[in-house]
Amino acid sequence: MAANGNGNQNPAGQPEENEDPQSQQAGSSAADAQSAAEGAPPADGDALSQAEEILNSAGSGAKDDAGSAEAFELRNDLLRLQAEYVNYRKRVERDRDVAREMAVVGMLNSLLPVLDDIEAARQHGDLAEGPFASIAVKLENTLKGYGMSRIDETGVAFDPNVHEALIQQQSPDVQSDTVTQILRTGYKANDRVLRAAQVIVSVPEQ
Fold it and tell me: Which pTM was predicted?
């Protein structure tokens, strides 16, 4: 045994300073974590970002070994996988939008009889004032927020896409088929016709 300057004895062949066991454990854990991170795809991304990460790695590998058929095949497989995932995600988003639109259209169609009753009450003067008049206005404004609008204009050209002609009469006052009276209001949800308006059409005299 040899004694150091402080009177402490060190066994032969061992360094004079010993590392703290906790420091050694922390250093080992950090090294393991770094090693795992280098070989693993990003944990916080979706499947597309992970594919891009692998694709970039394969691309850099192909540069190092341009003659590797395996690297070339892997890159093509990843490119195809990436394109399929992008198409799948777009299709899912499109289907979700269509389902949402159809749900709104179904809800608006179910309320058409209620709107007809409101319109009839308003024409008879039952909704001139009072709490029910306020409720009717609130309901109509709420439905406008879903893109609902009325088809009830007169004096416009007859359009078979939005008008249903129940009565046709000749008139010297028009030059083309014109809507002169609304028999039942029609409704649209944005560009989709929920129900065509039933109208009287004036046509030019022969």
Answer: 0.59
